[in-house]
């Protein structure tokens, strides 16, 4: 795609923005590059639903409180077609041409890391709804803030749970998409495997966009793992699980991240999704009271269901709404849209929200959440950890 066609696509997306208002100095302009087409489109559409819900609720209340007035919100979307370099271009375009005052980061760890350089250059706060890898936050940047805890906060509880509930598990297989988040998850799990003195019998990567997994899955089957861990995104994981079943590849425990938290994963796989374990940064069963506009987890879930035909929000959608609510709190606190001032308010933030307690560490990554571990049982997600929201126990075996 050349520069001219990229810009034309961006402008078209702006014209279709769900909550457009007349362009004015008296509005909050947020640039939101998303993968609305291409292989990451399912994830991109989820983030958009979360953003749109927050913006709609803001507008019902007359806007975001900034100083002694309320300002309308304008989210300017740009589809970067699931290509990280285009995501970086989108960030630059949204800042320079569309005059975005704030940025919602591109989807995932890799694209968020790349795009954050633009936010840092122009001193524009960027909030990342779906970036968990420590590598995103180790650049020394001051304007990036993310609502996902580090990947080991998912893999460490999983490993401890498997060892406690399935002591016969000794051999582990890791299969990862060659992308920043899945590779970082794999690194974190390897540490857990080593710590619990398990035997890593298979450890391979698959290419972005891969569709045929027969060869590596056949090799994995020969290694006879007790626990299989697959890291990737929803389309990857549906394909891998389908082909595992076709090849008769089974294990006592099957863990996949990220994807099983999405209703689409369960709908696509039906019985093949049963007993797949996972972890995520939020679950609708948690119960937090918040200072944010939504007020509580329960009220957020009810608002989401009312807006989206009874759909229950997953962690990606909730996180997208959360970064809007967090920005809203920072704007209210500062009473200005000045980028450095809002950045300072985010860095000092220590509040309760429907997403959970929000405090950002020195790197900008949230350090105040305990992510839930869950398993698909009876066609639904059942929380296994933490104990305060536990709904069931780990079940072994896959069909």
TrEMBL record:
Sorted alphabetically, the keyword list is:
Amino-acid transport, Signal, Transport
Describe the location of the Leucine-binding protein domain by residue ranges: 27-363
UniProt-listed GO biological process terms = amino acid transport
| InterPro entries given in the database record | BCAA_transport, Leu-bd, Peripla_BP_I
Q: Which SUPFAM superfamilies match?
A: Periplasmic binding protein-like I
- Coiled-coil regions listed: none
Stated family: Belongs to the leucine-binding protein family.
- Name of the protein: ABC transporter substrate-binding protein
Can you name the source organism? Answer: Pseudorhodoplanes sinuspersici
């Amino acid at each position: 795609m050349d520069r001219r066609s990229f810009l034309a696509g961006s402008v078209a997306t702006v014209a279709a923005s769900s909550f457009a208002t007349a362009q004015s100095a008296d509005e909050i302009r947020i640039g939101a590059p998303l993968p609305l087409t291409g292989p990451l489109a399912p994830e991109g559409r989820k983030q958009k639903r979360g953003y749109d819900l927050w913006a709609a609720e803001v507008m019902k209340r007359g806007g975001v409180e900034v100083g002694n007035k309320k300002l309308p919100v304008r989210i300017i979307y740009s589809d970067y077609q699931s290509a990280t370099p285009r995501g970086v271009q989108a960030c630059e375009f949204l800042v320079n041409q569309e005059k975005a005052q704030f940025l919602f980061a591109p989807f995932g760890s890799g694209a968020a890391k790349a795009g954050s350089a633009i936010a840092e250059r122009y001193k524009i706060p960027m909030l990342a709804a779906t970036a968990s890898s420590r590598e995103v936050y180790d650049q020394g940047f001051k304007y990036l803030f993310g609502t996902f805890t580090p990947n080991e906060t998912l893999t460490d509880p999983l490993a401890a749970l498997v060892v406690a509930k399935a002591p016969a598990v000794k051999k582990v297989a890791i299969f990862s998409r060659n992308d920043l988040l899945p590779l970082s998850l794999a690194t974190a799990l390897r540490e857990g495997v080593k710590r619990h003195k398990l035997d890593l019998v298979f450890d391979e990567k698959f290419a972005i966009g891969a569709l045929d997994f027969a060869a590596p899955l056949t090799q994995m089957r020969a290694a006879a793992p007790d626990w299989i861990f697959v890291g990737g995104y929803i389309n990857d994981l549906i394909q891998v699980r389908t082909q595992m079943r076709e090849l008769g590849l089974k294990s006592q425990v099957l863990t996949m991240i990220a994807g099983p938290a999405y209703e689409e994963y369960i709908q696509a796989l039906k019985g093949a999704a049963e007993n797949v374990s996972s972890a995520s940064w939020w679950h609708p069963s948690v119960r937090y009271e918040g200072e944010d506009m939504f007020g509580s987890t329960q009220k957020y879930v009810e608002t989401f269901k009312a807006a989206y035909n009874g759909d229950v929000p997953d962690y990606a959608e909730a996180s997208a709404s959360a970064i809007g609510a967090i920005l809203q709190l920072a704007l209210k606190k500062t009473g200005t849209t000045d980028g450095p001032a809002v950045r300072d308010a985010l860095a000092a933030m220590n509040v309760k929200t429907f997403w959970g307690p929000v405090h950002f560490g020195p790197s900008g990554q949230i350090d105040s959440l305990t992510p839930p571990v869950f398993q698909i049982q009876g066609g639904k997600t059942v929380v296994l950890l933490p104990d305060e929201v536990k709904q069931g126990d780990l079940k072994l075996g896959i069909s």
